[in-house]
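W.,

You were right to be curious about this one. When I first looked at the sequence I had no strong expectations either way, so I just let the prediction run and decided to look at it fresh. Below is the sequence, 603 residues in total, followed by the output.
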Amino acid sequence: MSYDGYKRSYGYEDGHGERYKRPRIAPPRDFDPDVKEFEDPSLENERTAARGEYRPAMMSFKAFLTEQDDSITDDEALIKFAEYKKEFNRQQINEFFVAHKEEEWMRDKYHPDHLETSSASTKNSIQNRLKVFMNFYNEGIIDDITLQSDNAQKIELLLDSFVAHLEDPDREGLLLEPDDPLRENLCKTRSIYFNSVHPEIKREELLSVLNKYPGYLRLCLSDPSPDTKWKRRGWASFKRDAKIKEICFNLSNVRLKESEMGPLLNKDLSRRIRTVDVMCNDKTVLRTCLQAANQIINKLDAKWGLFPETKPNEILGITKSANPLLVNIAEYLVEEMSAEEEELLGCADNNSGDRSPDYDSELALVLDRLVLYLRLVHSLDLYNYAHYITEEEMPNRCGIFHVREAMKSGATVTENKITDYKDKFCKKIKEMTESWKEMSQDEMHELGPKSEEDAIDMFSQTNIQELGNNKHLCSLCGKKFKGVEFAKKHIINKHEDGIMAVKKEVVYYNNYIKDRKRPALPERPKTPAKPTARPVAAPIAAAMPHRSVFSRLTENVPDRHIRSTNVRDRLGYKKGNIAVTSDVKDPRSVVDYSDVEFSDIFD
């Protein structure tokens, strides 16, 4: 379509080339914008979806049936409704992708070009952290650490020493001294928090601003969140001696793409070492955590290729890592108990009472090495079920760390509490690791992946124009062909850049839908129904013959000390029933006969 045709189709010009204004349709004079009694509720769904707040509401099964033929059977209705839900979900996924596919955060996560670059960067940082960790491990420093709260200072010193070697790999000595003045400058930073970064603002644009200030180190940008209307959060880190308040003040006057970033000073961590329940020191819980840590290390080591000699275990169906921390780990994974002895002594079913935690120091030492490995190398806090994926770019390159509460005299646990904790722990770990799994072909098929062949065919058809007499024009270069098949072959062979872009778009979309934690519009929260007031029946005197005449005469007489009600209430006014022009208090008081003796009258 030509530009002139485009303008005419959208009402900018009439057929004679003259400009005119489209007629203005005004609401009636008695229109009240606050009254929405006659508004279609689906319009609100469309508006919120357009603003990027909530996804449109899906039809209920009852509403779906109203659009079907009366002769439809129950089984047919269920099958068609399932197809409707599948297609609705596919449509929402595609619409979200189309709306955000040009934004930087989306391309960094799923586009094949950006994904390859970000994966290489992440792998490089993990390998650097592994190198530093193995230096600590080979020197035996890791073996002296017990992950309990009474060793908090020693653990924090280890974390600071680890970060110091990440910041300065060439420095001599592994462990810092507790009073080393370099500890403050090497391990701690000053940072500024941006609470509102528009998703269209690119990292390079922010870096061009931040690099102007002395002491700038790094920038971390989060993924957009529906809670903030798809705006991003950011953390800019500076050296410890940077004039952070002055920098923050100057940044508050900076606008990128007509958008403020809301810079705020970011405080230091209030408490770096945090604790979990003392029952985690019990032998059965230690073994459960050890099993989880072993599985996670095998998965993450295989994902990032940290140990090339890693080989799959065909018998168990898992990948076995050559990590030296996992050598002979099977000796500690098997649980032992005196089942026969307990059965003979009659105490097998009598374990519900309080008891002291059964602590195994050797088992705890093996577990603590794995927990430290996960925290320092893979940025995974096992006891908090958290994977700090962006920690390498955050102000603290090794921040919060959860350890076990120290053993205290008099501490007790019960088997029921231990069982509940193990169930919760395993559930949380499973939820975290399930998101790492690749989707199967059946799961992908339900979400409607794109086909490379179909996409190339559609690209070819879009760029072929039929001229008549079996002649076709390639709109990309202007060449003419006799037959559509020749034109398709020409586009595939001669326009490789366009074909490659189509292939990458297919991979881009499929990478998005196979992410189990892919971003999407949230569903609109359901508004709780207002409770309806029950009508209260008036008392009927005839139904209560045992009551005295006096009580029936005075049952509705208010107390003399109660102030008079207004005219509106006295008349029984109800909205929409009667209009009261005056709403002042009635100056007359209610006559009270409670001090009159009625017995003489009715005798």
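Here's what jumped out at me. Residues 1-51, 540-555, 557-568, 570-580 have pLDDT under 50 and may be disordered. And, maybe more interesting for your project: The longest strand covers residues 190-197.

Coffee later to discuss?

I.
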